[in-house]
Amino acid sequence: MMHALAALFLAMQASGAVAVRFDPASPDVGPFPADALTVVDANQKTGRRVNLPLPDCQVQPSACIDIRAVNELDGFHAHPRIRVRFSGPVNPDTLRAGIWLHALENLTDEEYGLHREGEWIPINEVVYDAETNTAYAKPDTVLDQHRRYALVVFSAVRDGRGDAVVSDPAFEACLRSGSGYCAEVAEAVSQATRLALLGERVVAASVFTTMTVTSFLERARDLLGDTALSVQRARLPIIGIADLETIGVRFHVGGADGFRDFSFPASLAIGIGRIAFGSFRSPMFVTSQLTIPSTPTAIAVELPATSAEIAFHVLLPARAMPAGGFPVVIAGHGFGDSRFGMPSAIGPAMASAGLAVIAINAYGHGNGPEGMVVLTRRDGTQVELPLGGRGIDVNGDGAYDSAEGCLVVAPSALAARDCLRQTAIDLMQLVRAIRAGIDLDGDGAVDLDQHRIYYAGQSLGAMYGTLLAAVEPDIDAAALNVGGGTLVNIARTSPAYRQLAAALLGARTPSLLNQGVTFDDQFVLRYQPARVLSAPGAAGLQEYFEMLEWLQAPGDAIFYAPHLKSSTLPGVPIKPVLFQMALGDQTVPNPANTALVRAANLRESTWIYRHDIARSVSRQLGGNPHAFLADVLSPAGLPIALAAQSQIAIFFASDGAEAPNPSTPLRPFFGGRDIFEIPEFLPEDFNFPQ
Fold this sequence. Notes:
The chain has helices spanning 2-15, 61-70, 95-98, 169-177, 180-194, 215-223, 342-352, 415-436, 460-471, 487-493, 498-506, 538-552, 590-600, 611-617, 638-653; strands at residues 19-20, 38-40, 48-50, 82-85, 99-106, 120-129, 134-139, 147-154, 166-167, 202-209, 232-240, 244-254, 258-265, 272-283, 307-317, 326-332, 356-360, 372-377, 382-386, 448-458, 477-481, 531-532, 577-582, 606-609, 676-677. By secondary structure, it is α/β, with parallel strands linked by helices. Strands 11-14-15-17-16-20-21-23-24-25 form a ten-stranded mixed β-sheet, with helices on both faces. Strands 4, 5, 6, 7, 8, 10 and 22 form a seven-stranded mixed β-sheet that branches. A hairpin with a 7-residue loop joins strand 2 and strand 3. It starts with a helix and ends in a 13-residue tail after the last strand.
């Protein structure tokens, strides 16, 4: 039989017909993804586990490590890089019309889901490799977790002469076989044929199951009820701002520098009456390898034997405390920042609306463990309290970089994924502590409202904040500033992080760098014409980034964003979410911002800061608007920061019912023009300032 198929395939090639190659057991041929590359696994929620073949591990040891990790997952990427290979050249401009995804059944009834069974999903970000006659693309939207989909190729794809592509004889034989994986493909083709687009013929197809993304974090949340909170007040638990001259932080950076000091006048804490300090305990799921071990998605997650003491501080408004305590905003800082950065910057605006602010250091942040908070009283005396730095000396050089342990090249490129998941767990534990009642000054009264808990996150804080808001039912509303995804796309496109992406590529064996010490992966944005690869090694680079994105998915905000509104997780209500982004952001580029908002289906509650307009009036503003929310030490940036902060404060004070235009108080400074807007269309280009 196989000899006959091979002979027929050769005859087709001789006649000039271009076929869609079909070998579902080969990822290089496909169509990919395909459940033919999985095995049965009753320990997984999908009933499957990925089983990709390994390359020669002597030649490609890094690829083997990645594939072994992928082979622990219960399905394919929830935004997979589709691969369709042809027997000859095709017209790249016809690929978008001829390749579609078709939603099949969801394997659980726990969520509403993004797609209805029978729905068609177009492709986007199309790439064509003329050397191998292979098309690559991404689905136009993030897919549901643990759902089956069909990848369907229609005869609308045309070859170089304009003729329709045809089926591989192996595909026709698969449809006739009626057994195993081929039976699933035949059923999917039958459905697709009944609903065929534009009357075109189905010439190839695969069936695949998407991975379960959120199960670990959901199960970890449920385990928190079995842990001790152990909330402790600090040695000096609370102090009045009026009694302080300065608030300082002594970061333990280690190495030759030892410590790095930063302080600001207490007089800048306008509207804040007191600052309080304490700690709680949180289970540490991250191991010494900086990752969280993989757990099959249908079995219980085990509570780790270790926990960490997490230091926090609270900024309390300078007004009478309401009965039941102040409504509280958990503030999540960005990459390389600490609990005394962004949370301090937004504290006065929140206090003006009667909101307390509480903050911790994200996992891997705050530098080394010997850092201190240094409070200088007006009489010159000082009080020192532990900063609670959570940095990890990964490379053993005795120094603690600002985010060492969260985003590292070695020993694991997955540290960022689990840094975000661990931080989300710590914040869920903090929510538990607030819900249990926190008495900051020991007077027997609860100081933070147990029933009004909000979250504001900036940059990386917006990313782990998306995980938190999607999984934690007791967050009432969230404001996410300059967040984005995926983590991989931010690294590969951001001027701020591209060097890190190059380091990841260079650390692999063999190296994937294709331009000396840097790289060109020929990344394509949404809605752009199909890109024909021309840079040597670009296809391999894209394949690595896809593999890394797949592995990062359980800690990536993009794959939690749909659960904020469209497909909430069991027991978690829909909550108001405010997004803020900046046009021309060079740290988290606009396509990454947009991807997060699109995945959340929340364009109507997204405000864009038009840095281009603001900078045309005020040239003192810097070129990169990424930090506009916390830019309170810049005379030019202060009014913009306060306007954005005020929008968040009013949003929370109204329980998410109001989000006024931040432009209103700024119009006199910018010639009557609005520098914030809800976009009619989300920006899909970088918009970097010229």
